[in-house]
C-alpha cells in the first residue's frame, strides 16, 4: 500500500524582528467577573500568527469543578472571529460548540484574547489561569487533518525542528483519547512505538499504531491506522519543539526556550533530582511515564516557588492544590524535584518553557513601578503593568519595611536581621500585572508605599541557594556582571550583606545598619571570606564560607542589580560644597533613588521616589534601614535632572546625602 500524505494547516513564521519568549508564551491569571466579555491582554499576537489558549478555573468556591478549556486558531467557524469550538484535556469527548453565555465572543487579538461570561472561563469571584502558546518555528505549531485509516500517512508541519512532544485529539465523530508522543517515552528508546493519554493517568504503552513506528522529523510526523487516523474523523495536533542548543530566540536569535526531557525520581526527600535545562523555567507540564500519575501543570505565576508548588492537573477538572513545601524548586539552570512524590527510580517526562524576557529592557515602566496613595479604595492592590518579581512595601508613618519575592513567596525585612517569614498568599499569584498587598496584610492604612521590580537581563535578577560551607560560584540569569548585590540568609538570623561594583570584592556593606560596612581585613575573613575575593561575571558570582553567605545547612537569597542603559544605573559620586549632578544616562529623570554614605558612619540608606517628590522643593524620603522612622518631609535634598538627579547644596541635603569629599554609592531607576 502506498502511504498518502495529508497537507495540514500549519504555522506561519514571524519574520524580521527577534522573537522573545514573551512574544510566544504567556501565563496570565485573571479573576472572573461574569458580567460581560473580558479582554485578556497578554501581549501575544494570536490574530496574526495563530496559536492555542488553554484555560482552567483554579478555584471551586461554589462547590463545582470545571473542565480545562482548549481553544485554538485552526478550528474556527469558517471566517467567524468567534472562538466557536473548544476541547477539554481531561476528557475523551469531541469538541464542544460554544455559545455566547459559555465561551462568548472570545476573539483572538493581536495582543491576547477575549473570554465571554461562562462558568468555565469567567464566573464571578472565581480565579482562572490561562496559558497561551503562539505558533512559531522551533517553539509550537498546530495542524489539523482528516483521518484516512491508511498506515504510513504523513502530516506536514512547520515547526522547523524535530518535535519534542505532540498532543493529538480527534474533534469530530465518536469519543477518543488524547494521544501523546514524547521524545523520552520509554526512556527515549524508540518512543515512536509508544504513546500516553493526556486525559488519563496511565503510563506509556506500546502503541505502534498511533505513529506507525516511525519517528517524527523536522517537517512531518507519521500516522498508523489506529486512534490517530480513523477514517473520516477530524483531528488536531499540538506540536511542541525541543530546543537543543539550536533555539532561535532572543536578541541574537540563538537561545533555547523549550525543552522536552526526562528525569529519574530519587525516592528521597533529602536527595532531590537536579534537572539541568540550561535555563530557569516558568512553566512545566510533567508526568510519571512508567506508571500511573497525573499530568501536573505548574508555573511561576501560581507559586512555583521554593516554598510552594501549586499545581493543576491536565487530566482532572479539580481545583488548584499545593504540594508539600519543597517538592519543586526552580533554579537558575533548571529545577530540583524532591524525590518522594512518585517513588524511587521512577521516570518523569516533562515539557518546560524558559522564564523571560531575554532582551535588555528599554522602558523603565515595563520593569519598575512605584505606588503611594492617600486613600484605600483599591484595597492595597496595585496594577503595575507587569508581573512583579520583587516588592518592597512600607508606610510613610512609623513602620517596618517588607521585601517580598516571587521566587520564595515569602518576605524579609531590610530593617533587621530576622529570618524569612511567609507573607499573604495573594501577593504575587492573584492576578497578572497586579501586586496584591491586601488589607489583611496592612489593614485599612492610607499611607502604603509600594515599589515593584521585574526580573530582566542587565537590570535585575533573584537567586536562591543552599549553603554548603565551601567556597564556590552561584549561577544567575542577570546576563551581565552584577554591579550591586543584596544577600540575606533566609533560614535564620543574619545581617544583610551588600556588594557594590565601585568598591569591589574587598568591601561589603549592610542594609540594616548605618555603618560603613567591612573590608577584607575584618575579623573572621570579612569581605575576602564573603565574596571569595572574586568579582562577579555575566553568569556567576562567587561566595566564600562566611556565615553571611554560605553556612552549611542554611538557605540564602541574593538580589542582583545592574545598569541597563536608559533604565537603571548603579554608581557612586563624591559630595561637594555645592550641588552635584549625577548623570545616570536617563532622558526624563529618575523615578527611584537609593543613596548610602560609605566613607563615614552614622547615616542610613536614603530612598526617594518621584511619586512622593523628586522636585525643586522639599523631597519626602524614607530610609530603607529604619524600622521605626517616619517619612522626612521638610528637606530639599534632591532636585530633578533629565539625565539622572541632582543632589542639592549641603545645607539642604545634609551630610547623609552631600558633604564635601564624602563618598556615596547609589542605585537609580529612570522615570
Description:
- The protein has 6 domains: 113 residues, Immunoglobulin-like, CATH 2.60.40; 114 residues, no CATH class; 97 residues, no CATH class; 90 residues, no CATH class; 102 residues, no CATH class; 103 residues, Sandwich (Immunoglobulin-like), CATH 2.60.40.
- The longest helix is centred in the last third of the chain and has 5 residues.
- The radius of gyration is 27 Å and the shape is elongated.
- 56% of the residues are buried.
- 6% of the residues lie in helices and 35% in strands.
- The protein contains 9 helices and 51 strands.
- The chain has 671 residues and is mostly beta strands.
- The N terminus is likely disordered.
- The strands form 15 sheets. A 6-stranded antiparallel beta sheet has the order 19-27-21-22-23-24, with no helix packed on it.
Give me some keywords for this one:
single chain; 671 residues; mainly beta; Immunoglobulin-like; six-stranded antiparallel beta sheet; 9 helices; 51 strands; elongated; disordered N terminus
Number of helices: 9
Unreliable stretches (pLDDT < 50, length at least 5) are 1-5, 7-14, 77-82
What is the overall silhouette?
elongated
Question: In terms of quaternary structure, what is this?
Answer: single chain
Please compute the radius of gyration using only Cα atoms.
27 Å
What average pLDDT do the residues reach? 91
Q: Portion of residues in helices?
A: under 10%
Extended strand count:
51
Structural class: mainly beta
Please report the distance between the alpha carbons of the first and last residues. Answer: 69 Å
Main sheet summary: 6 strands, antiparallel
Q: Biggest sheet, strands in spatial order?
A: 19-27-21-22-23-24
Strand content: 35-45%
Q: Provide the number of structural domains.
A: 6
Amino acid at each position: 500500500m502506498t502511504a498518502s500524505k495529508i497537507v495540514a494547516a500549519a504555522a506561519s513564521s514571524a519574520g524580521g524582528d527577534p522573537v522573545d519568549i514573551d512574544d510566544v508564551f504567556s501565563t496570565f491569571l485573571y479573576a472572573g467577573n461574569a458580567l460581560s466579555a473580558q479582554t485578556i491582554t497578554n501581549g501575544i499576537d494570536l490574530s496574526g500568527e495563530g496559536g492555542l489558549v488553554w484555560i482552567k478555573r483554579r478555584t471551586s468556591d461554589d462547590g463545582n469543578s470545571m473542565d480545562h478549556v482548549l481553544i485554538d486558531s485552526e478550528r474556527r467557524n469558517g471566517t467567524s472571529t468567534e472562538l466557536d469550538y473548544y476541547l477539554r484535556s481531561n476528557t475523551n469527548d469531541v469538541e464542544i460548540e460554544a455559545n455566547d453565555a459559555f465561551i462568548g465572543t472570545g476573539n483572538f487579538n493581536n495582543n491576547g484574547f477575549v473570554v465571554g461570561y461562562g462558568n468555565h472561563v469567567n464566573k464571578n469571584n472565581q480565579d482562572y489561569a490561562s496559558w497561551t502558546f503562539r505558533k512559531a518555528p522551533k517553539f509550537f505549531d498546530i495542524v489539523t487533518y482528516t483521518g484516512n485509516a491508511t498506515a504510513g500517512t504523513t502530516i506536514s508541519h512547520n515547526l522547523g525542528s524535530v518535535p519534542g512532544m505532540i498532543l493529538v485529539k480527534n474533534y469530530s465523530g465518536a469519543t477518543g483519547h488524547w494521544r501523546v508522543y514524547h521524545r523520552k517515552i520509554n526512556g527515549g528508546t524508540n518512543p515512536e512505538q509508544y504513546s500516553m493519554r493526556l486525559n488519563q493517568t496511565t503510563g506509556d504503552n506500546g502503541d505502534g499504531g498511533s505513529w506507525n513506528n516511525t519517528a517524527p522529523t523536522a517537517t512531518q510526523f507519521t500516522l498508523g491506522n489506529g486512534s490517530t487516523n480513523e477514517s473520516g474523523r477530524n483531528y488536531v495536533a499540538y506540536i511542541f519543539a525541543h530546543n537543543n542548543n539550536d533555539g532561535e530566540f532572543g536578541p541574537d536569535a540563538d537561545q533555547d526556550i523549550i525543552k522536552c526531557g526526562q528525569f529519574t525520581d530519587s525516592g528521597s526527600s533529602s536527595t532531590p533530582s537536579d534537572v539541568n535545562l540550561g535555563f530557569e523555567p516558568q512553566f512545566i507540564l510533567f508526568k510519571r511515564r512508567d506508571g500511573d500519575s497525573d499530568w501536573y501543570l505548574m508555573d511561576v505565576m501560581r507559586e512555583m516557588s521554593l516554598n510552594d508548588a501549586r499545581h493543576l492537573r491536565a487530566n482532572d477538572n479539580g481545583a488548584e492544590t499545593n504540594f508539600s513545601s519543597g517538592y519543586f524548586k526552580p533554579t537558575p539552570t533548571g529545577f530540583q524535584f524532591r524525590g518522594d512524590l512518585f517513588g524511587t527510580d521512577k521516570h518523569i517526562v516533562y515539557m518546560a518553557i524558559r522564564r523571560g524576557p531575554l532582551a535588555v529592557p528599554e522602558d523603565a515602566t515595563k520593569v519598575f513601578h512605584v505606588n503611594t496613595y492617600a486613600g484605600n479604595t483599591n484595597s492595597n492592590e496595585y496594577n503595575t503593568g507587569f508581573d512583579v518579581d520583587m516588592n518592597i512595601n512600607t508606610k510613610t508613618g512609623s513602620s517596618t519595611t517588607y521585601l517580598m519575592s516571587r521566587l520564595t513567596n515569602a518576605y524579609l525585612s531590610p530593617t533587621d536581621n530576622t529570618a524569612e517569614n511567609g507573607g499573604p498568599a495573594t501577593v504575587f499569584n492573584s492576578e497578572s500585572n497586579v501586586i496584591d498587598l491586601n488589607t489583611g496584610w496592612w489593614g485599612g492604612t492610607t499611607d502604603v508605599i509600594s515599589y515593584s521590580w521585574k526580573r530582566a537581563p542587565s537590570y535585575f535578577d533573584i537567586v536562591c541557594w543552599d549553603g554548603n560551607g565551601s567556597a564556590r560560584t552561584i549561577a544567575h540569569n542577570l546576563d551581565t556582571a552584577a554591579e550591586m548585590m543584596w544577600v540575606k540568609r533566609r533560614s535564620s538570623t543574619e545581617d544583610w550583606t551588600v556588594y557594590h561594583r565601585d568598591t569591589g570584592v574587598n568591601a561589603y556593606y549592610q542594609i540594616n545598619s548605618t555603618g560603613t560596612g567591612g573590608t577584607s581585613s575584618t575579623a573572621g575573613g570579612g569581605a575576602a571570606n564573603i565574596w571569595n575575593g572574586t568579582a562577579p561575571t555575566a553568569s556567576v558570582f562567587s561566595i566564600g564560607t562566611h556565615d553571611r553567605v554560605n553556612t552549611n545547612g542554611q538557605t540564602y537569597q541574593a538580589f542582583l542589580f545592574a545598569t541597563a542603559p536608559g533604565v537603571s544605573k548603579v554608581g557612586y559620586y563624591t559630595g561637594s560644597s555645592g550641588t552635584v549632578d549625577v548623570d545616570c544616562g536617563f532622558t526624563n529623570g529618575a523615578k527611584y533613588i537609593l543613596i548610602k554614605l560609605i566613607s563615614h558612619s552614622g547615616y542610613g540608606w536614603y530612598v526617594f521616589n518621584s511619586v512622593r517628590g523628586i522636585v525643586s522643593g522639599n523631597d519626602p524620603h524614607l530610609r530603607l534601614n529604619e524600622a521605626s522612622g517616619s517619612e522626612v518631609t521638610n528637606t530639599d535634598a534632591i532636585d530633578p535632572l533629565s539625565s539622572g538627579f541632582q543632589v542639592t547644596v549641603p545645607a539642604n541635603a545634609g551630610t547623609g546625602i552631600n558633604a564635601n569629599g564624602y563618598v556615596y554609592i547609589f542605585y537609580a531607576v529612570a522615570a
